[in-house]
Fold this sequence. Notes:
By secondary structure, the chain is of the alpha/beta class. 44% of the residues lie in helices and 11% in strands. The protein has one domain (27-49, 61-325).
Amino acid sequence: MKRDTATAPAFAGAQHHRGQVSPPQDERHLLHFNFRHHTLSALFALLLAACSAPAPLVTGPAHPPMWLASDGDTRFILIGSVHQLPPDLNWQDARVARAVGQADELLLELDPVELPQIPALFARVARDEPVASLDTRIGRDLAEPALDVAASAGIDEQAAQTLESWGLAMALGSVQSADAGLLSEAGVESTLTRLFQAAHKPIHGLERAADQLALFDALPPATQDAMLARTVRERGQARADIRDLLTAWARGDVARLARLASEDVARTPGLAEPLVYARNRAWAAALTQRAQRPGTVMVAVGTGHLVGAQSLPSLLSAAGFRVTTIR
């Protein structure tokens, strides 16, 4: 995103070595829970920081929220995804097993074949414009702890100073997810991808990786800086926030999830429309188009897209689909 600011030194690189930045390995975590959860939620499994094994965030069997949207001969089974999960959490209940068995294909935010290109895309897009110093962007009181967290992940000061604010927010958010013991391999999309591949069923994406990254890169500088500042300011409560989200998700508590989503986007104005609502409208249009062909499609997207105002189930209902909760 272009800024009228002083130029900072060139980005230190894209390898996972001390003093350099490793780009995200799995861009599905761009929108972890898809309403900014330490970013933004983040986000991805970028630069996992070494940490001791944390206490479990959520225990017992989980029952993620699910919906059925049908127009007669086409059925969409919607499941709210969390992109990173504790590795020992059992969330594949009987509803999930039935859906996997019944579905002819899987729709994700991104086609898995795009994932290998994410690191190079992130490394290029997150540093394609000059930025001001972190002191200027978020203030010295937040810049210093931001650099400390970055250093814990092997990002040296020069690299951190030259990342655009959205990119650095994601990098810092990924450290928080790693500290909480979350793994992308245990997430909903990764698990469903393995199941559908094993069954030789097709998997497609609703978006392109480059387009997802472009959404962040196009955010106004002030919005990016606010996102970064919030990630740093709220770092101490990250684990508690993650626990709240996972607990509500595991219980299938749609009302609680909707409240958390609403509160979250309200704390960083300017994110909801481009990152959630506009994408929901595009996905609703894509599913309406797909409904011209019969079949059963499992759709796994971030839970934040499926609850609250302008959610995907609400848009599909308005488009004429019969939408019910799968209990």
